[in-house]
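[#protein-structures] MJ: dropping Superoxide dismutase here for a structure pass
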Amino acid sequence: MAIYTLPELPYDYAELDPVINPQIIELHHDKHHAAYVKGANDTLEQLEEARDKEQWGAINGLEKNLAFHLSGHILHSIYWHNMTGTKNGGGGEPLAADGVGELADAIAESFGSFAKFKTQLSKAAATTQGSGWGVLAYEPVSGRLIVEQVYDHQGNVGQGSVPILVFDAWEHAFYLQYKNQKVDFIDAMWQVVNWQDVARRYARAKERTPLIAP
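AK: finished. structure tokens for Superoxide dismutase:
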């Protein structure tokens, strides 16, 4: 039985148009995300077989594959909900009047201002080398928000940090529409950020207490 399943989109393929066209959403979700789900489940089966047979020659590759596919599944699951159409309130910036004042305050405290945060996340996403992500994450040791780059689906992530807003900078996320202009795609992404979803993720992340000492 599959452990991981492909989540349904919280909107139809056309919801984010014209920022992201329906063809990209359909291919990205139904093909790319589905492949990460299948890859994670297949790798779990292979690890189970390795345990049963006590054959560990492929363990290094299997662990890397699990990290790659599982990270891809988790990040994409966040990505879909991080966005909403402009007609449904997407974009702009988090404001207290919209019920996301705690998130707005945290961004200002952690980065100096929303404008400075927006620039940092945009630069982080746009300058990922090859494939990767720009991520706003809650870092529980300091209790602050930080921006991270995720290389492919794995590297350069703070231990224990919780992603709450992710920008997909892989070519499959934008190339059919934006060609090689990744910067233009990242700039457009700000028009569809679902701040209500980001605020909920921030509130839930703060409830976790990291165990960094016995």
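MJ: nice. The chain has a mean pLDDT of 94.
AK: one more thing. DSSP finds seven helices and three strands in the chain.
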